[in-house]
Amino acid sequence: MKSILYYSIVFLLLFNSCSNTSEDNAKEEELTPDTMYFPENTSDYWESTTIAELNWNTNNLQPLLDFLEEKNTKSFMILYNGKIVLEEYMNDHNNSKSWYWASAGKTLTTTLTGIAQNEGLLNIEHMVSDYLGTGWTSATIEQENLITCKHLLSMNSGLDDSLGDDVSSENLQYLADAGSHWSYHNVYVKLQDVIASASNQDWSDYFNSKLRDKIGMTGQWINLGDLSVYWSNTRSMARFGLLIAAQGTWEDSQIIPQEFLTDATNTSQNINKAYGYMWWLNGKDSYHLPESQIEFNGKLIPNAPDDMFAALGKNDQKIYIVPSKNLVVIRMGEAADEDNFALSTFDNDLWGKINALIN
User: Fold this and answer.
1) How confident is the model at residue 291 (pLDDT cuts 50, 70, 90)?
2) Is-contact 240 319, C-beta < 8 A?
3) pTM for this entry
4) Which has more confidence, 252 or 30?
5) Which CATH number does the domain housing residue 73 bear?
6) Which pLDDT does position 21 carry in this prediction?
7) CB atoms inside a 10 Å sphere around CB 166
8) In a domain, 45, yes or no
């Protein structure tokens, strides 16, 4: 006959096993997108959690904040599972002031393209000329008709990227066949014209009704020459980041088609592996940078998680999405060091500080 001690040990092992399994399952359930917290659209209230509750390293918070302030940051937010963990304002900025998204706002155009396609207004596989007519570039009709809406999303239209920001037809000149050359080009804004034409609405009206107002964002598009740049407060950028982190859903509504968003956040062409539909992708074995045809080996941001993808804007405007950790990280401000188009050494340095906090 086995002793009482034996059965006691077995019982304790089983009890602990069941308890651990329950805790693990609870943790997995907490981290799924369908359990994310979403702030109300008509209220300033946004639920929060604390660094202590998440068992992050509180000793490394102040070094992160000091670094951000030294690097000309105006605002910084971290969301975990939709809840605010950090929301900091510095360098004469506050929660009501607007700041420009720069090229991080390219992903807003991506998002509206997916929404418009889902509504049957356009097809990204179709020629841009189908929506804008011929002559929107200075290329021949044959060359121009090679360019699809998808090429604008993927930055491989083949148009010359060395001629500046002007997107008039005279300045959109043929360099290579569409699909054969990757270049970071402002021609993407032609997608806004495509959407306006296909929807028979002003671009900003369509944007406001289909995205901004649905998730409680504020802000507006401001025309700077041929470009339309989005300005908003920091929480509006965070709301957009949360929408993306939740796989295109906002509460019970699928705002962005999930299949399109999956395509947008994976490699979109075979030249720059670290680029989707205007989203930058970490964890690839090589990448290209704006205004360069050089292929760099290694990950885009080595200190960041491999599954991280990002909206990156001039002078270090950042939206980082990390699905594996259910994190959304926002940074707005002046250039951390020197002026830059998107990626800078600040990204890797910042992720070193973030890692020290969350790990």
Assistant:
1) confident
2) yes
3) 0.90
4) 252
5) 3.40.710.10
6) 40
7) 13
8) no
Angle between helices 61-70 and 345-358 (to 10 degrees): 160
192 DSSP assignment? H
Q: Is 247 exposed, middle or buried (0-12, 13-18, 19+ CB in 10 A)?
A: middle
Number of domains in the chain: 1
Q: Is residue 269 included in any domain, yes or no?
A: yes
DSSP 8-state secondary structure symbol assigned to residue 14: H
Residue 20 scores a pLDDT above 50: no
Q: What is the pLDDT of residue 12?
A: 35
Q: DSSP string spanning 44-85?
A: S---B--TTTTT--GGGHHHHHHHHHHTTEEEEEEEETTEEE
* Cα–Cα nearest to 149, from 126, 172, 168: 126
Name the band, by pLDDT with cuts 50, 70 and 90, for residue 11: very low
- 10 Å CB burial of residue 79 (0-12, 13-18, 19+) is buried
The answer to whether the Cα torsion of 86, 89, 91, 97 is positive or negative is positive
Position 36 in a domain: no
Range of the domain at 220: 58-358
Nearest CA among 41, 40, 62 for reference residue 51:
62
Is residue 2 in some structural domain? no
